[in-house]
């Protein structure tokens, strides 16, 4: 979440998509229209009936480690991480009220008048506040999305001026939600360590005071979803990402699997988890971050609340010794500070998995 020098960046005019559809519901400005090969056609769900991202039941992972249910679910988790980089978790133990409360204030936030939201602007080159992130030039195409992003933990990454006073319970609900999601991430990293035959605390011990940020993405309906993109294809720079789709959300998230964009069908009370670039490096590519994007819908809006969980900026990242073997599985990534990767990630536009070139050892 490190800010860039603002003065050097010219981003041109960025239309607020919610305002656009209020004033001209059928118009899609040129800056949102993608090249033909970049457009986000919505794939029919039927063609993907056999192509679901895995579902992991966390209640089974609370059982004793010798229990068959536990062992089966760990196997499922390891396959999900290895083959998909994405899975949904059910029975995650976070109370429905907590999930509903954050969704409510997020929705209310985006529904406020633009003048109110503009009190918390995302300045060019920064990634916190309200607006569009990852825009670095005047001719860069824009996503059909409004974002509101905040650093949450540790307190040093917070920008208190950007925490909104309205809706009234926004900060309180976000605090409560973030605590729960943090616990979930710690839990998931334990299971992921077990699935890799590592010591349970392996990630936790390495991560130090983990960095946690949240981004709320609001995708208004678009009269021409075939021409625009909700969120450009990218992988996440985090270790893990937790994505909550609003209740009764339409399909919007797609992941790239075997060169096909596969939709992630929302499941009631489930959270979508994905492996970020950092876990890809730490596992020497055994568990990979997967490219994903969001498409829009002609009639319906969509809201997602996304938490990025990552090591402390000071932490040195490199493939873990246990997962490297000079003979059979040589080291594929160099070592670096997580803060440097984070800075690299936010100072470049979203472009598939390109950010990871930063860490790859090319031979
Ligand atoms: C993200 C992301 C997808 C979505 O915020 O990194 O991938 O469906 N969001 O909002
Ligand atoms: Ni993402």
TrEMBL record:
InterPro entries: DIOX_N, IPNS-like_FE2OG_OXY, IPNS-like_sf, Oxoglu/Fe-dep_dioxygenase_dom, Plant_2OG-oxidoreductases. SUPFAM superfamilies: Clavaminate synthase-like (SSF51197). Keywords: Iron, Metal-binding, Oxidoreductase. GO terms for molecular function: 2-oxoglutarate-dependent dioxygenase activity; metal ion binding. It holds the Pfam family DIOX_N. Residues 202-311 form the Fe2OG dioxygenase domain. Belongs to the iron/ascorbate-dependent oxidoreductase family. PANTHER family: OXOGLUTARATE/IRON-DEPENDENT DIOXYGENASE (PTHR47991). This is Fe2OG dioxygenase domain-containing protein. It comes from Brassica campestris.
């Amino acid at each position: 979440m490190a800010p860039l020098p603002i003065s050097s960046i010219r981003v041109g005019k960025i239309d607020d998509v919610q305002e656009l559809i209020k004033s001209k519901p059928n118009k899609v400005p040129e800056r949102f229209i993608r090249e033909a090969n970049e457009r986000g056609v919505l794939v029919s769900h039927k063609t993907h009936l056999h192509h679901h991202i895995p579902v992991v039941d966390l209640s089974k992972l609370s059982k004793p480690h010798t229990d068959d249910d536990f062992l089966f679910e760990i196997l499922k988790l390891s396959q999900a991480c290895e083959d998909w980089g994405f899975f949904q978790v059910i029975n995650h133990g976070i109370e429905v009220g907590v999930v509903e409360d954050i969704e409510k204030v997020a929705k209310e936030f985006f529904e406020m008048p633009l003048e109110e939201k503009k009190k918390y602007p995302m300045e060019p080159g920064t990634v916190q506040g309200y607006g569009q992130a990852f825009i670095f030039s005047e001719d860069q195409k824009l996503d059909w999305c409004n974002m509101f992003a905040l650093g949450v933990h540790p307190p040093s990454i917070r920008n208190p001026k950007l925490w909104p006073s309205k809706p009234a319970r926004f900060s309180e609900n976000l605090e409560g939600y973030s605590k729960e999601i943090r616990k979930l991430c710690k839990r998931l990293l334990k299971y992921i360590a077990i699935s890799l035959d590592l010591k349970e605390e392996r990630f936790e011990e390495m991560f130090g005071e983990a960095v946690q940020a949240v981004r709320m993405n609001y995708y208004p309906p678009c009269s021409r979803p075939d021409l625009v993109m909700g969120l450009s294809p990218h992988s996440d720079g985090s270790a893990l990402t937790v994505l909550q789709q609003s209740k009764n959300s339409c399909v919007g998230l797609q992941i790239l699997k075997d060169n096909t964009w596969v939709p992630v069908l929302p499941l009631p009370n489930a959270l979508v988890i994905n492996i970020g670039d950092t876990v890809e490096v730490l596992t020497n590519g055994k568990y990979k971050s997967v490219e994903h994007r969001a498409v829009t819908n002609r009639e319906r809006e969509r809201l997602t609340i996304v938490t990025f969980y990552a090591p402390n900026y000071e932490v040195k990242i490199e493939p873990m010794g246990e997962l490297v073997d000079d003979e059979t599985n040589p080291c594929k990534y160099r070592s670096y500070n997580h803060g440097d990767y984070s800075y690299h990630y936010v100072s470049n536009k979203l472009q598939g998995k390109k950010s990871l070139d930063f860490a790859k050892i090319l031979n």
